[in-house]
Amino acid sequence: LVEHADAAVTDPQQPDEPTTGTPSDGRSNAEVGADDASVVFHSWSKQGGLKPLPLAGGRGTEVWDHDGNHYLDFSTQLVFTNMGHQHPKIIAGITEQLNTLATVAPAHGNATRAEAARLILKRAPEGFEKVFFTAGGADANENAIRMARLVTGRDKVLSRYRSYHGNTGAAIVATGDWRRIPNEYATGHVHFFGPFLYRSEFWASSPEEECARALHHLERTVQAEGPESIAAVLLESVPGTAGIMVPPPGYLSGVRAICDRYGITLILDEVMAGFGRTGEWFAFDAHDVRPDLITFAKGVNSGYVPVGGVIISSEIAHAFDDRVFPGGLTYSGHPLAAGSIVATQRAMAEEGAVENAKRIGADVLGPGLAELGAKHDVIGEVRGTGVFWALELVADRETREPLPATTVARLKSDIIGRGLLPFATDNRIHVVPPINVSDDEVARALAIYDEAFTAFRP
Ligand code: PLP
Question: Which of 235, 286, 383, 422 has its CA 20 to 30 A from that of 24?
């Protein structure tokens, strides 16, 4: 696999650029969309009146539909195609594994899986020793929670309001945004408010004040709940779908100190923020903090094959030397996922993709979005880092009243019509291109957003 990872780059069957935008089977968007909606039960959707935009192909930052329209993919789907679509090295890595051993049960040793784990551990801080592979981000959090509970002998998990941790038993209950299904299945979950200065819960007027008050609130929550009952604090290093809220300096290290004071496991969820999204390998790298468990998915392999996992500190890993860890699914550590991870991790390093995300965020995308924010009143705040940005849309800049969801939906369709796939949620547009996006693509995208905001009437 390692030797062959570059094969597709010179393979004449793999064009570097899309050669066609026409549908392969001659059907239109309307036909494929209707066909899909007639038999596929869609996630997170009302099933009546579904009109999914069918995508026929993609390359890099671009995708195209069955009517031949091209789009810049600034959603990276659900913020996972970090290295863009159809990256030849990732396709080659998967193909190589497919032709070698397409599948194998988790209990067998597997060279590709071991290499995937080693490449992931290379990016973790000192003292991390093992990787537990899962099928995605939600079950990564399930398993991290289970590890923390088994190791501490405690039950409760504290997580933030305004967070998303996945749509399975404990992960959805740990989630703190509108998707939470309160007390479905899991017990022992407690929520607290994290720092978010623009809509401060603490009446703070500076990042320092917000940070200090948010830490005080967390510590008081720990004390009120009873530290001896708390297994873990679970946090997205940078909360993603709930609003891309980069924590103020000192917050994550302050949480670490609270966890240390009370013997609590710190789980950092890097499912969305990890592997380059923030311009760092892990988002917490910018925050001087060392968690006990790190969960990942999405960017680790650009989502080409479903996979996720938990990166485990030596201390927690060795707690299971003489006791069974009761976790795992049939497809945990699937070799095709492992092949995609090896190829993605190598491509990211070879192509300097994480460095690209950092540079483009600081020099091109961040300043460009700030200009849009200054120009268009509907943008209440621009915030983010790397290629992880939120435009907070407001009906009124003074009161910060959120723009209604129906208006955001209208704006979203307009942007799509102008040739860009945006990520829109609640009253926000998240600007989340691939980490290897080019300066030219960012310039084209900024022009499209600008045109759309200029034409926008609330
Ligand atoms: N954690 C975070 C921070 C996420 O953003 C997501 C998905 O968006 C998840 C967990 C769940 O991952 P998955 O959908 O792969 O289960």
Answer: 422
Q: What pTM was estimated for this model as a whole?
A: 0.94
Taking the centre of ligand 1 as the mean of its atom positions, its distance from the CA of residue 416, in whole angstroms, is 24
Q: What is the DSSP string of 430-454?
A: EE---TT--HHHHHHHHHHHHHHHH
Which one of 75, 134, 157, 165 would you pick to mutate in the ligand 1 pocket, going by the greatest count of ligand atoms within 8 A of its CB?
Answer: 165
Please name every residue paired with 130 in a beta bridge, in sequence order, or none if there are none. 312
CA–centroid distance, 3 to ligand 1, in Å, is: 32
- Mean pLDDT value across residues 263-278: 98
- Which has the closest alpha carbon to 83: 317, 351, 324, 292? 351
C-alpha 46 to ligand 1 mean position (Å): 21
In this predicted structure, what is the pLDDT of residue 299? 98
Question: Are the C-beta atoms of residues 157 and 293 closer than 8 Å to each other?
Answer: no
What is the position in ligand 1's atom list of the atom closest to the CA of 141? Answer: 10
- 103 alpha-carbon distance from chain centroid: 26
Give me ligand 1 centre to Cα 245, in Å.
16
Look at the chain and count its residues.
458
The single-letter DSSP state of residue 85 is B
DSSP 236: E
Place of tokens 């891309």: 244
Respond yes or no on whether ipTM tops 0.95: yes
What is the pLDDT, as a whole number, of residue 222?
Answer: 98
